[in-house]
Structures are given as structure tokens and as C-alpha cells.
Request: fold
Amino acid sequence: ILGVFAGVAVGIGFMHLDTGSTLRIALALLVACVVAVALRVGERPNLEVPIAALFLIGFATANVSELGIQRIWETGVGAGVAILVSSLLWPPDPVRELTRRLDRLRAEVVHDLATVAGDLATGDHTMRLDDVREHSLEAVRDVFALESARRALRWSPLRRRDATAVDALAARIHVAARVYRHTRAVARDVLDTDVRDPRLAAATRDLADAVDRSLAGFPSDEPLARAADALDAPAEGEAAIVAAQLRQLLADLGSMRQDP
Reply:
């Protein structure tokens, strides 16, 4: 909407210049493109600015101001109808979007932890740390996206009843983001060392199982208990570094399980 207003203003301004039509259009397009970059939507320029400016210049008559006002009114009415339709008739579904994000996070973190466990069992380094880091950043981005989901609830009367479900999904996405912080640290230590330890591999698989159950909304007491038993035994050398990271993940999962 702001782009249309800006484009109309640019068009009206250049219609009052005493220049040839070709030069007027070129200058208007140049200025409109600069304004479009300043008013960009996300990472893309706001193309409504040059479109509105060229529309006004192309169809303008002596009553250019009236045409500009008409264009603004059309945009305002269209925006109002779009808001009413999106809020009352076809509102966005934040529960479906958050469920999709959570399912993706759950699959990625369980897969990454299983890969770590496989490397610990065989001593091979098949894991790609860049992939784990990218998944971790995606988890952080998903946490920041929670505000837009809550905003969708506030704007739509038909979706406000989903507030409880959104809160539950948001809590699990926060859990996934915290788990990924530990997963990234464990993966880094495993790649930086030459540890081959079936006991630590089994503990990592149990932790992956616990994460899978927690993000799915199921109790995770059993796998957490097995992981705790495996990590109680002392570790030596480089294995002690990996074991310390796994204990931190275990402790954080335990504290999250006890959170109300």
C-alpha cells in the first residue's frame, strides 16, 4: 500500500515537469526504482512504486491529481477488502505452519544426533558440520518466526481459539532450538577428536530417542534414564570431552521435561 502511495506521488511530481515524455518517464522510473529499494518488502524492492508511477504518467490527462486520488482510493478499498477476507473468511493457519516447522526440526535434529551416534560407534567422520550448523540456524529462525504466528492470532477472530495449540507448538520449537545448540557442540567435538566409543554411541541414540519423543509430545523418561546410566560411567581422554557435552544435553533435556 505504501508503495502505491509513493508511486502516485512520484508520478504526480513528474507530470508537473516541463520535459519531453520520454525523458519524463525515464526520470520517473529512475526515482521510483530508488524509492522501491528504500521501501523494499523483505529482500525484494517494492515494485508497486514504479508500477504506480508509470500507470499514472501513462494514463494521466489534465486532471492528473484526480487520477492520483482515484488510484489511492482504489488501493485503499482493495487493501480493506483483502484484510477483511484474510481475517474473517480465509485467515492464515498458524497451527499448520508451526506444525510443519516443528516436524522439519524434529526430523533434522534426530537425524543429526543419529549421525553423531554412528560416528561414535565406528570412529568414522561421515557427518557434515556445515549441515548441522545450518539446521541450528534454521531452528533459531523458527523461534523468531513465532511472533508472526502469534500476530496472526491477534488479527484473526476465527483463529484466536488456537492460542493454546500455538503455545504448545512454540514451546516444542524452543526445545528444538535449545537441543540444536548442544547437538552442534557435540558434533564439533566428535569431528575434532578420534573417539570410538560404543557406550557413548548408545547414549547418543537414547538422547536422540528422547528428543524425538519430547518434540512429538510423548514422555521421554525411559530413554533419558538409559542415557543417564550410560553417561554415569567415567570416560577418559578425548572421550571425556564428548561425554561432557552429552551430559550437558542430558541435563538440559531433564530440566525442560520438568518445566511446567
Q: What stands out?
A: The two ends are 43 Å apart (CA to CA). Residues 14 and 27 are 8 Å apart (CA to CA).
